[in-house]
Task: inverse folding
């Protein structure tokens, strides 16, 4: 089989790239090791930056998002038993949209199939070859177990942190920057009325807590915990009790416990691979970078990557220019590192770190007080949260 761009991975990065290429008349094939049902039900974060929202709308895949998504014009930072609001709209004229990543994936798959595009699910034994040639090839076994190959002009590695694309780049070509945080998030999805219509980020002596939502009846909540935490030791009653303890204070939100639909522990890390290109292979999304979820940036960074990459491919096929391909990595990394800084800063300001004492906690409280009382500091947080300009 032959195509112009072979895309490994049917997550937000791969699907959005294929959609953008289709709009430019560029052929692509997506290969995915998982089945369609798994991909569409894989729960991930769901806070979309303004730029991501605009891109989904402008490319014709935002209709269901606009019907079901929840527009947020600010967040609460809670510390010292009190909540203080950061008003995104007043500070930047923008907001964010709460709409689950799996819902974005569903919308992009539906658009891909509607447009007659190819997605090959349930493949196995995937490998990429000829990355320094003009005929890079993806070899795999199809859903029936038969060997097959896809010859391309370019390959887009959108297969996540543990995927095969980055691992196929020869040793010594890339530089890796990594930080593993000494804590994790215990996350739950519960049938519970949200305590308020916007997110609460809480710094507490017992650890960080995030109160989010997915709908007017479904709440998403996270508790800072040990990375090796045994989820079996967290029955529902203990979880609700701990959330209540970390939210307690002068204006305690009205927490309404309900049935917990799912629970799990998520590790926290920062990671960047440079450069994001080797020959005819281009990395995008989690295959090139990971951010801690505190700043809600993972999917947004992936969408920003493929927006740049799609433009580079369009310039190449339209007029033969390689300028966009040659600058792809630098353009993306400029924004990625600024977003890494923001995610690290939010994480450092809100979490308790093992081995630190009262002094460090008081510094955190002073930082939170400054951020919520200074318009300049509030604007910095708001600008980053709603999303830096594409290409920034």
Result:
């Amino acid at each position: 089989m032959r195509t112009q761009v072979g895309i490994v991975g049917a997550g937000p990065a791969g699907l959005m790239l294929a959609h953008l290429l289709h709009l430019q008349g560029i052929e692509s094939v997506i290969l995915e090791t998982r089945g369609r049902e798994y991909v569409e039900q894989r729960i991930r974060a769901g806070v979309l930056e303004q730029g991501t929202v605009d891109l989904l709308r402008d490319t014709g895949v935002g209709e269901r998002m606009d019907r079901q998504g929840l527009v947020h014009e600010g967040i609460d930072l809670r510390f010292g038993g009190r909540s203080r609001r950061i008003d995104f709209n007043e500070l930047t004229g923008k907001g964010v949209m709460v709409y689950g990543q799996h819902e974005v994936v569903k919308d992009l798959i539906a658009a891909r199939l509607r447009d007659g595009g190819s997605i090959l699910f349930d493949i196995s034994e995937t490998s990429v070859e000829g990355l320094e040639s003009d005929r890079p090839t993806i070899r795999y076994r199809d859903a029936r177990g038969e060997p097959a190959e896809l010859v391309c002009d370019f390959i887009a590695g959108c297969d996540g942190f543990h995927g095969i694309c980055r691992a196929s780049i020869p040793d010594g070509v890339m530089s890796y920057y990594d930080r593993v945080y000494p804590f994790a998030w215990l996350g739950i999805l519960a049938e519970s009325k949200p305590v308020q219509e916007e997110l609460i980020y809480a710094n507490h002596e017992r650890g960080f807590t995030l109160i989010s939502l997915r709908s007017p009846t479904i709440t998403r909540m996270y508790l800072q915990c040990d990375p090796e935490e045994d989820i079996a030791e967290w029955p529902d009653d203990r979880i609700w009790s701990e959330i209540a303890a970390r939210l307690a204070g002068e204006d305690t939100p009205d927490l309404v416990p309900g049935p917990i639909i799912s629970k799990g522990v998520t590790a926290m890390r920062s990671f960047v691979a440079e450069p994001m290109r080797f020959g005819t292979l281009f990395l995008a999304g989690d295959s090139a970078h990971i951010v801690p979820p505190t700043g809600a940036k993972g999917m947004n960074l992936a969408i920003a990557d493929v927006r740049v990459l799609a433009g580079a491919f369009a310039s190449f096929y339209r007029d033969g220019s390689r300028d966009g391909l040659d600058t792809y990595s630098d353009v993306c990394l400029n924004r990625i590192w600024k977003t890494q800084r923001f995610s690290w800063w939010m994480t450092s300001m809100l979490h308790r770190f093992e081995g630190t004492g009262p002094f460090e906690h008081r510094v955190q409280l002073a930082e939170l007080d400054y951020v919520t009382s200074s318009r300049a500091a509030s604007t910095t947080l708001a600008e980053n949260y709603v999303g830096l300009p594409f290409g920034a």
DSSP finds twelve helices and 20 strands in the chain. The domain at 5-72+95-177+269-346 is CATH 3.50.50.60 (FAD/NAD(P)-binding domain).
